[in-house]
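Bumping my old thread because nobody answered last time. Still need a sequence for this structure:
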């Protein structure tokens, strides 16, 4: 029997002026998720079950950008995406462009377990959801006042926003203070505040699993797909580790970030934290991102080159930590 471990994130890239109250709210949510995961893992729950449960918890809370509280497209609607992967047999499932599925991560798991495919998108994913009897809600359920306001600001600035982590009351000054725009896929954007939610777990049997979910970018083009549903980019799990990424989707996709952590562990013989550090340093080019990871040995790790990342960790050995800024 091995030792279980869990890591959870709420996005990389945080406004350095984020009010203390909002920081505390984020930490409380991450702590709540960790405690839920600890309870499940202490009761011998499987890694794949726990990552789904935790990401569902995050999707159901409007604080971060996934499920309820997802970023709005240029049309003012929500298009969500999620993926899940079981390291045992490298089974995986993913969905994109879902607009009425209350918990996209659970639909991703159904794609993995109840379909002959690994990835379904847009109308096909919605039709599959109805056939599987998953809970469906009106698109308005996912829309919050914060995101309506952020979409308005994005349209006024004629820019794409990385979600809504920058509070409405401070976004104008944040835009004004940027000396040069952030470049995403060769094009400038005005505000850098990426976000996604994810969870990685190794259970007491040494099995690893990962899940990631997001609403994407505020004011994104309809039909845009980021890294979160892409196996090997935003999510990956195998017999040695599990990884969930967050940040600039285009940079994560090009660097196949999640898979690369496992690859350098396997081919270069690096330990978990060393592999994470290597990938963050060498695979992002000019991109900004972060990731969390666990190993089959019960280790936890994270890395990011952005300004902060919402994250939390717990292990069977009693270690528990929740943080935002660089240690």
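Sorry it took so long. Here it is:
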């Amino acid at each position: 029997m091995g030792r279980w471990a869990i890591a959870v994130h709420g996005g990389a890239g945080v406004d350095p002026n984020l009010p203390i109250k909002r920081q505390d709210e984020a930490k409380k949510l991450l702590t709540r998720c960790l405690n839920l995961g600890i309870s499940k893992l202490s009761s011998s729950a499987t890694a794949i079950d726990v990552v789904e449960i935790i990401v569902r918890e995050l999707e159901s809370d409007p604080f971060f950008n996934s499920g309820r509280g997802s970023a709005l497209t240029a049309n003012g609607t929500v298009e969500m995406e999620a993926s899940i992967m079981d390291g045992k047999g490298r089974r995986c499932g993913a969905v994109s462009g879902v607009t009425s599925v209350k918990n996209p991560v659970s639909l991703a798991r159904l794609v993995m377990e109840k379909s002959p495919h690994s990835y379904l998108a847009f109308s096909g994913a919605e039709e599959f959801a109805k056939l599987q009897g998953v809970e469906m809600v009106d698109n308005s359920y996912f829309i919050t006042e914060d995101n309506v306001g952020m979409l308005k600001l994005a349209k006024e600035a004629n820019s794409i926003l990385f979600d809504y982590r920058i509070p409405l009351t401070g976004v104008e000054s944040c835009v004004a203070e940027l000396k040069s725009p952030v470049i995403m896929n060769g094009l400038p954007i005005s505000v850098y505040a990426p976000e996604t939610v994810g969870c990685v777990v190794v259970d007491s049997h040494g099995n690893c699993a990962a899940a990631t979910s997001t609403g994407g970018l505020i004011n994104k083009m309809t039909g845009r797909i980021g890294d979160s549903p892409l196996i090997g980019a935003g999510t990956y799990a195998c017999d040695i580790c599990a990884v969930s990424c967050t940040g600039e989707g285009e940079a994560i996709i090009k660097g196949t970030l999640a898979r690369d952590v496992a690859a350098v562990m396997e081919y270069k013989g690096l330990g978990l934290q060393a592999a994470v550090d290597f990938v963050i340093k060498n695979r992002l080019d000019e991109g900004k991102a972060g990731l969390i990871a666990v190993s089959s040995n019960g280790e936890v790790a994270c890395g990011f080159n952005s300004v902060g990342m919402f994250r939390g960790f717990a292990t069977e050995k009693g270690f528990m930590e929740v943080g935002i800024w660089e240690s």
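The two ends are 32 Å apart (CA to CA). Let me know if any region looks off to you.
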